[in-house]
Amino acid sequence: MSTPNPSGTDPSGRFAYDGLERVFHEKARLGIMTSLVAHPKGLLFTDLKELCHLTDGNLSRHLQVLHESGFVEVWKGYHQNRPQTLCRLTDAGRARFLEYINVLENVVADALSAARSVPASGPKSIAEGWSPA
Question: Is the pLDDT score of 35 beyond 60?
């Protein structure tokens, strides 16, 4: 996992965050992964659906993507003669998601640092020769 160059010697790649996993970087999947990391024993499909405010079909599709990536495992079984589906993180999924969260923390810290270094003065002036599009 690489992080941005804090010295700023290479401005072209300073804010390129290689550790941002595209499969997690989607609102519904971020919610699913966060819910599952908070419940190491897993969650029933219905509970996960409620926590993430997703429909059956939407949750199924996102779980399929996460499962195919090796981050989530899906178990089917019965409880009191009723079919149930249990979802939980794989060890690899947990590790990769925690790495992803660390990179997100760097993104937030860099954004705050950059925002604080720019004075919040009046209207921004634009260099001569530029006009609004």
Answer: yes
